[in-house]
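re: the backbone from monday

yeah here it is again, tokenized this time
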């Protein structure tokens, strides 16, 4: 019961915000319509149950006129039922897509807000495969929540509607055994209740492991899909290294987990299905077994017997709701757990950015990026680099060097405000514009124009502005391809991508430009030409570069060196430190 309450509380926490959102009236209206139609369908089932008695009595008595009128009556009910069923499905699907659209927009907004997606990865990404959480899991959550919720309501209303009928039929057709009537008030109701409760308990005992197995299945499927995407994204490097055999082995290992877990699902589902199928088949004849002695003792007519069987079937089916949808319940609970984990991961990432013991980034100062008492850590708490007293002054060009792993790129991440691990503060001039260019720049899939202008909205710059910038960085041939669609991180060489990244910098003209080995794939003459271009076109921009080539010294006024100092790296003492 504790687990059920916890799951329902989680479902409410995930579901309720939509019905309080800006789309609440449409959502509430659609939900009310779906529920109203479901209640109307239950009402029709009650009318059909009453029709059963009249129809089969007409057959037993060979009453042609009554037979014809009951056929017409049933046809009208059937027509109404069909219309209701069609529109219930239509409105249900309409509600699903609106609800899913809202949840997806909310999750995307929270995931992408203030670099939460990046901090979730730094934490080990306990909420693995966020792409699956916002696609498959959201879709399944909305679908299963509506179907299970409406089905449960329907079962409750069905029980309330048919128990009264079944109780009355129990009195009309008393339990007849060994030639005697045994007075058990509402014995048909108690029979349906006992039959359903026993079936529900046994189904749960057999099927409860499906929850964990379904959770792992979705996890393994997402992991396999994610690694297939990685192979596609890195196909060139894999081909150059002849890594196809290694990748095939890795992918088959991951798919092996999918198969192994699927076999576990098969075995458990086989047991559940064997029991539920037996249970459902037995439920067909069980009411006839209970009421047949009264019928053969001529206590009731054929119509009464058929009505009793129909009412019993409705009550027993409603009471057996959880047996019928047990497989869906297991899948639903796994989805709820995954969305709950995703939301928890977002909360943890948000807390990393707001906790007191972190790197504080704030606006202030006149014309410099100032680092005070800055001590950066790895996510596991290991000391990485101290950069106390470092300042990047307006208009200066600074080169940051040091061995691999000394924390140069992490220093840039901290200045960008996305690295929370550490202590100290970073002050950035109010309203200053900054741009970080990594060694491998990111270009969204789409038009070349949009890839160059990113993160600005497409159309921010004119064709002439983009064409001139492309010509200056040495990519004039791309000026005629601005409207072409493509995956530019795959179709362009790394050197061309780096030139395109500098094109972006020239267009945006940030006040602070951080280059993290952003020209490392170019030859030295090309690198020198691009640095001279930046110096000419962006004379007021403060430039901070990470690089290892000695030729970069000529394009910078200062050289900051990070060197080993005990258990961490720090600004090197002597000439470079004095320059700070």
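seq for it, each position gets an aa:
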């Amino acid at each position: 019961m504790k687990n059920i309450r916890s799951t329902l509380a989680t479902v409410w926490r995930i579901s309720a915000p939509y019905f309080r959102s800006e789309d609440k009236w449409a959502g509430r209206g659609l939900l009310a319509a779906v529920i109203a139609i479901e209640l109307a369908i239950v009402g029709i089932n009650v009318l059909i149950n009453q029709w059963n008695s009249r129809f089969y009595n007409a057959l037993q008595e060979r009453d042609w006129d009554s037979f014809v009128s009951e056929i017409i009556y049933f046809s009208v009910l059937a027509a109404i039922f069909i219309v209701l069923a069609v529109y219930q499905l239509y409105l249900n699907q309409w509600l699903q897509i609106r609800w899913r659209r809202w949840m997806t927009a909310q999750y995307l907004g929270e995931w992408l807000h203030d670099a939460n997606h990046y901090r979730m990865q730094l934490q080990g990404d306990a909420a693995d495969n966020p792409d699956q959480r916002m696609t498959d899991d959201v879709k399944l959550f909305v679908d299963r929540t509506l179907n299970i919720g409406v089905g449960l309501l329907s079962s409750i209303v069905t029980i309330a509607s048919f128990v009264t009928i079944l109780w009355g039929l129990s009195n009309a057709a008393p339990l007849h055994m060994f030639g005697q009537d045994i007075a058990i008030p509402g014995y048909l109701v108690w029979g349906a209740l006992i039959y359903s409760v026993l079936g529900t308990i046994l189904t749960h005992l057999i099927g409860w492991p499906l929850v964990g197995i379904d959770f792992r299945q979705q996890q393994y499927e997402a992991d396999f899909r994610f690694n297939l995407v990685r192979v596609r994204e890195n196909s060139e490097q894999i081909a150059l290294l002849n890594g196809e055999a290694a990748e095939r082995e890795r992918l088959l290992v991951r798919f092996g987990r999918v198969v192994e877990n699927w076999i576990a699902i098969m075995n458990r589902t086989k047991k559940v299905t064997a029991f539920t199928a037996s249970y459902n088949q037995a439920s067909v004849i069980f009411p006839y077994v209970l009421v047949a002695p009264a019928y053969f003792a001529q206590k009731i007519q054929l119509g009464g017997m058929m009505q009793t069987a129909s009412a019993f079937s409705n009550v027993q089916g409603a009471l057996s709701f959880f047996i019928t949808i047990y497989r869906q319940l297991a899948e639903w609970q796994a989805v709820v757990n995954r969305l709950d984990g995703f939301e928890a991961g977002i909360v943890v990432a948000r807390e990393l950015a707001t906790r007191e013991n972190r790197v504080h980034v704030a606006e202030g100062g006149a014309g410099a990026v100032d680092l005070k008492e800055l001590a950066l850590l790895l996510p596991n708490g290991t000391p990485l680099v101290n950069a106390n007293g470092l300042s990047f002054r307006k208009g200066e060009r600074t080169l940051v060097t040091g061995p691999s792993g000394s924390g140069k790129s992490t220093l840039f991440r901290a200045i960008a405000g996305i690295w929370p691990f550490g202590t100290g503060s970073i002050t950035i001039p109010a309203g200053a514009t900054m741009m970080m260019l990594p060694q491998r720049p990111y270009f969204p899939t789409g038009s070349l124009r949009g890839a160059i202008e990113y993160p600005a909205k497409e159309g921010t710059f004119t064709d002439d502005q983009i064409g001139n910038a492309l010509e200056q960085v040495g990519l004039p041939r791309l000026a005629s391809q601005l409207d072409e669609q493509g995956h530019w991180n795959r179709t362009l060489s790394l050197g061309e991508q780096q030139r395109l990244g500098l094109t972006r910098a020239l267009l945006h003209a940030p006040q602070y430009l951080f280059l993290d080995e952003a020209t490392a794939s170019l030859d030295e003459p090309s690198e020198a030409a691009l640095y001279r271009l930046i110096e000419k076109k962006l004379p007021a921009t403060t430039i901070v570069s990470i690089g290892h080539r000695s030729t970069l010294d000529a394009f910078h006024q200062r050289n900051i060196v990070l060197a080993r100092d005990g258990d961490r790296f720090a600004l090197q003492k002597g000439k470079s430190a004095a320059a700070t």
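Residues 178 and 293 are 9 Å apart (CA to CA). Confidence is low (pLDDT under 50) at residues 573-580.
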